[in-house]
Amino acid sequence: MSTEINIKDKIKRNSSMFVNFVKSAVTASPKVQNNFLDVSAKVAETVLKIVKDADLVVDLNYKGKEFWSENRCKTACFVDGGVDKTSIISSAPLSIRAGSYVVKPDAISKREYFEESMVFLGDLYDPKNELYDFIDDDFEEDQMLNKKKDGARIIFEAATIVKHILLNKKFDYCFLHGPIEGTVMPFSVPGFPTFTKFAIENMFPFAVNKKTDVAARHFINVYLEALNYIKKGKFPIYGIVETSNSAPYVKNLLYNYKSQGKISDKDYNNFIKIIKKYKITDSHLLEIILSSGQALKPIEIKKQIQGFTVTTGSSWEDKMESFPKVFIGYIKTTDNNSPIRIESLNNSKNLIKDYEYILGTSRLLPNYGFPVGLNVVDKFAKIPNWMSKASRKYYATHLLRQAVKNKDQNTISLAVKILSKKARSWRNRPIGGITK
Amino acid sequence: MLKNSNWKSIGTVLGETFIDCFYFSLKNYKAKKGDIVTTDSKVPSSEGKIIPVTVWGKISTIESSNAFFPTEAAQELTNEDIDIRDTILPTTRDELICKVVILGYTKDEDKSSKLLPLIYPVRPAATVKYPSSEDVEALLISDLNSSHPIYIGSLLAREAVKIRIDADNLVSRHVSIFGMSGSGKTVMVRRIMHEMLCKNYPMLVLDIHGDYLGFIQKQKELYPDNKIKLFYPNLSVNSEDKEIIYTLIDKLGKPLTDPQKDFLNSLLEKVKYEGGSLLKYVKLLNQRSREYASEGSTSFKNIRPASMYVVARSLGQVAKKLENMEQTNFRHRKKMSKLKFVELADPATEPEKIISKGQLSILYLKGYETLPASAIVSILLENLFKHRQEVNEEIPPFLTIIEEAHNFIPSRSENKDDLPSVETIRKVITEGRKFGTGIMIISQRPSRLDETIASQCNSQIIFRMVNQRDQKATRDRSETLDVDDSKQLPNLANGQGIISGQVVNFSLPVQIKFDEKLINEDIGNENFIDTVENWDDSEAVKERQKFAQDFSDISDMDNRSAN
Q1: Across the interface, which of A105, A366, A375 has its CB nearest the CB of B76?
Q2: A377 to chain B: nearest residue by CA?
Q3: How far does the CA of residue B124 sit from the closest CA of chain A (Å)?
Q4: Which domain range does residue B210 map to?
Q5: Largest CB tally within 10 Å, which of A12, A59, A195, A232?
Q6: Domain locations in chain A as residue ranges
Q7: Which runs of E-coded beta strand occur in A124-278?
Q8: Three-state secondary-structure class, residue B300
Q9: ipTM score here?
């Protein structure tokens, strides 16, 4: 009983679960609203019971000064990518880059350095049928553009880590801002363009002499190859995610318990339904269950799940199976924030030490509770405004040149139209009365 | 043309540039605020050609930031006592952004290095260079284009760059020197006086504290060819100074009613005076008013003898005060027995004794209250100015240096604008340029100065200033003081000042040369604790103490009660 009260208190104490409750108050049914607190508390209590039963909770050790004295000899690499957010109307992402921040605190020379792993302006994707074609539906076009941007960023980040591996960098740790393995399902849609040969050669120089036919240049194939390299990396590589909008850890944990016969199919299915109904995520639950400085040991999770409508029957269905499984764990770095998700492709032998290192680097951002090195590289990788401007100019020139080369008046007109097309803006709305 | 091949590259111009300024990214520790820097650029000529030029500018601000160092991290480092070098936080990503105020450009093909106003912005991404000290100095001298440059110190950011100011503008266009106590104003004035003495330019110093008496002590050694005279005030008046005399009596004496004031006015009309000491005249007035009162004189309509007596008493009080002030000044002079003080000559009849070629005249005003001091200064300057206005010019052009100027030219808000010196100095400063009667105003409280007079000063030399009102007043009254430089005012060290206006061509932070030899040794320092430690009562005090106890005992005995 006392545990339940304690958990209820924790929920009320401004947790993200409570924020979710407030949000639900607007949209959820009266029944859900009514039962939210009791159900959430019971779910949390049950999950706590299970993680304790599975011996997944660990207490991490962090003593500021002592920790850094011990770890000043470690070389850490932090990787993040950035995509130009202000693109003109077109299908192609204009500029993407991935940066690395490498630091060895006790190094006598070159204590720290930044590497701009790749800067890629212009056509990343194959321009055939891409550059001048508009999709009729604006919404679909936006969706496709966003996918292309995401795909480009994910592949750039992966390529950066692969490059470090291939260059035999002597890192003690490598951290990526984001999941170590992204879900590839969105990129399996028909018509998703392949990368250009030039782009592949730039991103993966090691693949220059490899077969780079059209199929091999599709995002899913390229990404799989990159992940296989990452899995073979000689240093621990972790992807770190601030918040989880889903509940992969809890769902998989319960699935394992169901598989082991520790819980019934019915209970499992009901539990999953409840989680969905109350929009309960890993972040919500673990924020309540874990205390600051505690972690959950990783469990192996399959990220690419077959059976979606878009992949069923397509050639990608089998490919999904080839993707490596991911080890997912959580660390609660501060009292006030949700735990951060730690992903890796391998189960580390020095898991506790690795997690303690992540905790230590996160304590340098005591309010945000996220590894400070990723915060540093995030700022470095962000594409500044001047670069966005330059890339827009580059793209406009490139587009017009191609159109003019074509000598077809309609194509030229279309190119001009593309360049001059602007999104509707509330500022441009007609003003009533006499305009001054 | 200045050689720029050896100038070191210290940074790169940032993306947006303007006609009056640009920003650049600075290499660590390669330049300081106030440094002069250059960048190569091109401007369109009037003939339509594109000509290569060197753009010169002054670093007005430097900002350092590390975008990669989160504020939160500082919190953890402090709380846990962690050395940042042990952590993964970046320590080498400081970004230095300098703002450069453009001074002008020089044409690369021209031999002269006169700065011209920039008409086209500098190129973004251009290299910023650090010119040699010799070249900066050469540019400043060439640009100043002065027939009589005088050396005052060095550029604050670069000791090797000597700074000179234009003496012609200094003596004709008026200068104000502001700064809090001990900031370096007097050092600056001494420097200017030294240079002007070497040029034989006559100067009159109104010295309240005796800050400039060092010139007398060092005359033989440093200025053998100059005359340096030390005057003590003599309040001599003549019939033309009736208004000043009336004001003095009115303000120094008892408050008078309207009939009493009428009597005083009539008295001044009736008792004629041929000129001479004011004290004697006041005594004469006192005597006459008593006579009129006792006689029951009917020559003053509607004024009763009682009123006349009141005026007589007031005149007696004025006379007493004037005597006291003379005595105080005398005592101060007596302390400096080595110095030869002479009575101030009559400026109306003997102006040449005060102002002559190569002469420095110091009027020692210590001991005088504001009003009499103001009257003395007013009468003195009024007469000297009149001599400069006259066709036959009995005296050469001269520079008047007014120390503690807020005593002589207070702001209207001080409610002292009826001081006679305000009107006189306003007149002299407004018309002085034509007649060669330049004025240098020195004050630690610029906000308390008469606005008209302060804004007539075309050049300013500003030292450390903490008071917000004074800072504002300084900025408001200067057209040329650089805004960013003015922000530096509270942080300037002793002897560091900002010069702007017509004596230089642009606002410059300067370290003033300190002339140690010109300090008045008799004034001593302000180490009062040492003074008390070494204190020995005077003979008179010792004598009094010798008998004091006896008298005290007698008094005690006398007061004993019967029991």
Answers
A1: A366
A2: B68
A3: 13
A4: 162-233+344-518
A5: A195
A6: 2-56, 64-246+281-381, 391-422
A7: 173-177, 237-241
A8: coil
A9: 0.79
